[in-house]
Specification:
Length: 138
């Protein structure tokens, strides 16, 4: 498994009239963790874009278990649990003080600058698979 965790401090602007984090605000947190995960693997999204590629979200599934509130410090953990192939699946766990607030999953694929699906570049997919396989041996 490949993983990276980040910490987010909940901003007032991310909450609704009840003081609860609005459900859609979890998605940018997941994106931040996903970008950090790719960076930690030596696959910066900025460099992927320079290759004329993007990795859009094809699917997103979120299960909310408990609320987050203004000024909470939440941990957002992004994980690649399955060996990457044509699609890349990333799981997330959002927690506060060890309590799971949300579990989520995003599915991604590579597209070119026009938005047309393309095979993952060999150097990127082989790097992801190599790192994933190494993590499985530990």
């Amino acid at each position: 498994m490949l993983e990276k965790s980040i910490q987010i401090r909940v901003r007032f602007a991310e909450t609704d009239a009840m003081g609860v984090v609005y459900h859609a605000n979890y998605l940018p947190w997941m994106e931040s963790a996903r970008i950090e995960l790719l960076d930690s693997l030596g696959l910066s999204y900025k460099n992927i874009i320079k290759l004329g590629l993007h990795i859009p979200v094809l699917e997103v599934h979120v299960k909310y278990r408990a609320s987050a509130f203004f000024d909470d410090r939440v941990n957002v953990r992004a994980m690649i649990r399955e060996r990457p192939g044509v699609k890349i699946t990333i799981d997330y766990e959002i927690s506060r003080d060890g309590k799971t607030l949300s579990e989520a999953r995003t599915v991604h694929a590579f597209v070119d600058s026009s938005g047309a699906p393309v095979k993952p570049p060999a150097q990127i997919i082989s790097r992801l698979r190599e790192l994933f396989d190494q993590s499985q041996k530990k």
